Amino acid sequence: MExxxxxxxxxxxxxxxxxxxxxxxxxxxxxYEIEEIIAHSDDDCENLLIVMEGIxxxxxxxxxxxxxxxxxxxxxxxxxxxxxxxxxRKLPVNIVANTKVRMMRIPRDSVIKMFQMxxxxxxNYLNMISSRAQFLSxxxxxxxxxxxxxxxxxxxxxxxxxxxxTIILNRSQQSLADLxxxxxxxxxxxxxxxxxxxxxxxxRKEVKVLNRKGLNQxxxx
Length: 221
Fold this sequence. Notes:
38% of the residues lie in helices and 24% in strands. It is an alpha+beta fold. The protein folds into two domains: 2-139, Jelly Rolls (Sandwich); 145-219, Winged helix-like DNA-binding domain superfamily/Winged helix DNA-binding domain (Arc Repressor Mutant, subunit A), CATH 1.10.10. The strands form three sheets. A four-stranded antiparallel beta sheet has the order 1-8-3-6. Strands 2-7-4-5 form a four-stranded antiparallel beta sheet, with no helix packed on it. Strand 10 (200-203) and strand 11 form a beta hairpin. Helix 5 crosses helix 6. 26% of the residues are buried.
């Protein structure tokens, strides 16, 4: 179970404790070859899936038949944790092996037993699905703004609050682009224009707001 030490669901749990937990629950492991489909979209989500070795990807097929990659998930991360519980327990995407993959499957009943055995595991699981929900909520919020500059302005003003004029951006440009639903070069270009227009000043991860009124106008554009 050494592979699970780096898994966010087992953060703060000693390796020997992880072994003890798994000695008391049922689970299975299976190996998949490159490009093999591990699970299909709309399959019943009856197991917690954990990538033990390799990399998988989530992908969707649109109405035209085009395949759209959603994200890559490397070991030792879990897959689709939010869909193991709730009224509609269906996988939202196809899960496909990018490389040769060893996948662990833990039935829902075993996961519930693990919650009862270890509070760290329960808290880590709740934190993971809550963080995902918060990210999606933020993404929906930013999608309501038509322009990239409007999205940036909203993020900066939200981060500032009522006081101060400097923000430390802990996200990479790619992470911000994913949050806004735009391409990274487009985000970089928009920020560059905002610097040129003297709305903000950027020094590495530090952003100083120079013109709040101008940012508010961008949000209304």
